[in-house]
């Protein structure tokens, strides 16, 4: 994979006429998807400058062409086991309001067109399972893709604290 790939925010005419496009990726062998229109860039993992007193899931910031970008590790955000980053680890830069945030994921999988009728609400799991970040689920072939709500995934209060520290 190239070091960095920029994605156009313009929808492909006709491709998503009956659905939405999602960038899918893996975190600890689970498949997730985010709205492709929120993705600005996919880049190989680079060193992150730690920020003192940041939430554990915020690994720090990077300088992306003059813009300070907070970096969120999705393994940590989802309370999964933390592993070393590999050559497949990437940062997906997404727009959240008028800001950008980087998401560390294990690997990018594909861009999928998922018809609106194929997206179902995530079931309530009860107990300790938090479905706050889940916008829905979709079955694509034999795999189940959990679609994430970026706005809920990235705690704006934590990001605002980071902006002051950076």
From TrEMBL:
Keywords: Cytoplasm. SUPFAM superfamilies: CheW-like. Residues 19-159 form the CheW-like domain. The keyword Cytoplasm applies. It is found in: Cytoplasm. Its main location: cytoplasm. Gene3D superfamilies: CheA-289, Domain 4, SH3 Domains. One of its GO terms (biological process) is signal transduction. The keyword Zinc does not apply. It holds the Pfam family CheW. InterPro entries: CheW, CheW-like_dom_sf, CheW-lke_dom. It comes from the Bacteria. Signal peptide: none annotated. GO terms for cellular component: cytosol. CDD domains: CheW. This is Chemotaxis protein CheW. The lineage of its organism: Bacteria, Pseudomonadati, Planctomycetota, Planctomycetia, Pirellulales.
